[in-house]
Amino acid sequence: MEDSNLLVGLDIGTTSVKAVVADSGKVIGAVTTPNSGMRHGQIVDIDQTAVAISRALKAVAEKTNAKIYSVVAGIPVGMLQLETATGFANVGEEGQEVSNEDVKRTIRSAIHAAAKDDREAITFLPSRFLIDGKTEVDDPRKMIARSLGVTGILLTAPTGSLHNIKKAIERAGYHNNFFVPTPLAISSVALNESEKTFGSVIIDLGGGVSTATVIKEGQIKYANIDLEGGSDITNDISAVLSISKRDAEQIKLDYGFADPQFASKNDKFAINSVGSNGQQMIDEVYLSEIINARLEQILTRLGKGLAKHNALKQPGGIVITGGTSLLQGIDSLTANGLNVKARIYQPDQIGMRNPIYTAAYGIVNYSYKMLEVDYLVNSVIYGFGQNVVEEPVSKPKTSKNSKRTVSNSESETKEAYNRNKMSARDDSSTDEENNNQEKTNGLKGFFKKFFD
C-alpha cells in the first residue's frame, strides 16, 4: 500500500466479501459485495471468490481514494486448530542481551515442535518467555540471558483451505500480508477487557455458517460450528412462500423478526408467489415463524455444544454479531433459549453501523494493536523482514501501540527494512513536539514493516 498507515481488513464470507480500510486505526471506508464462490465457509470456486474480492477492494479503494496492493485477511474459527507449543534457544554461554533474532529463533523452535502435517501456522500467541529457565517475562529483548524459552498457543489452518484463500486473493490482484484469527479479531472490538479476561461467548451468525466461540484470558478456549446460517433462512422463506431467493432475502431484511412475539398479524406485505394469480398478502408473524424455526435449530445446536463444555456460565454472557443478527429480537431469542444474558454488537463508526462488518473491522483493529513481539512472530511465519539488521543504541522510545518498551534499535530496524529514513526534526522545535514526532514516526515504521 502506498500509505503504510493504512490497513485493509478482508473478511471473505460465504455470501459476501467485506473490506474495511482504516487510517492509523480510524475507519475511513467499508464495502460489502456478494460472493458466489463459497459454500458453508469453504471456497468451492476460486475464480468466483476472486471476482468478489476484486470488486470489494476496488470499490473500497475508490470510496477512500486509496491505492490498495495488500490486505490482512481473516481465518474463520472453523478452520482453526489450537496447539500448546514450547520452544527453546541458546543466547550465549556467558550471558548476553536477547536480540530480535534470539526471540525469532525461540518462536521458530516452538512452531516447529508443534507443527502438524497438512496444517500451516496462522499465528503464535506467546503466554510467557522464560529467561534461563527460571524468570518469566512478557518481552525478553534487551535482557541478559544464557538461554530463552517460550510457551504459547499455536493456531493453524488446513493447508488446502489456506491455499485456496491465498490463491483467490492473488487472482484478485492483491497480496495477503498475514492472517488474523477471526474470533480474536471480533473479540478485539466486540468485547471489553473484562469480558475478554473473565470469559464471554461470541456467536457469529453468518450467511453460510454460524459459530460460537468462547474467549477467556484473551484466547480461544472452545469453538462450536454449525453449517447453517442466514442463507438457509432465506432458502426456507423462498420454499415456503414460493418466491425467488432474491425476493426472500429482501423481505427477510424488510419484515422479518427472529422472535415472532415482536411481529404483528396486522402488519402485512405483498408477495408474488410462483403459480398464483396476482399478489398475496403475508403477515409479519407468519414470516417470522419461518425465520424462527431455523434460528432455533441453529441456536439449540450451538447451545448444546456450549453446555457440554460448561461454557454458558461465562461472566460476560453471549455477544451476538454477524449479518443475521440484524433480525430483530435475536438477542431475546438467544437469551431465553439458552438461559443466559445476551447482547448484540455492531460497529458504531459512520458508514459501518452494521454487524456484517464486525469481522473486517476487527481485523484492522487487531492488526493495528499488535505488539512488536507479534511482529516478530509474523516475520517467522510469513517470512517478511528477513533482511533486518539490528543497530545498538541506548535511549528507549515508547511505541503508541505497545505495552512494552521499544528501543531505538528497533526503530532503526524499522527504518532499515523500509530503506526510508525519518526526516530530520527542526532543531528549534520543543521537546514536546519532538516526542510527538517520535511517536508518529515509530507508528509509521511499524506499519511499513507489514506493507512496504
From TrEMBL:
Keyword Cytoplasm: no
Stretches with biased composition (Basic and acidic residues): 411-428
Domain SHS2, first and last residues per copy: 7-190
Any Gene Ontology biological process: FtsZ-dependent cytokinesis
Subcellular location: Cell membrane
Xref: Pfam families: FtsA, SHS2_FTSA
Region (Disordered), start-end ranges: 392-452
Keyword tags: Cell cycle, Cell division, Cell membrane, Membrane
Chain segments annotated as transmembrane: none
Gene Ontology CC entries for this record: cell division site; cytoplasmic side of plasma membrane
UniProt topology in membrane: Peripheral membrane protein
Similarity annotation: Belongs to the FtsA/MreB family.
Listed HAMAP family: FtsA
Functional note: Cell division protein that is involved in the assembly of the Z ring. May serve as a membrane anchor for the Z ring.
Subunit record text: Self-interacts. Interacts with FtsZ.
Protein name, UniProt field: Cell division protein FtsA
Gene: ftsA
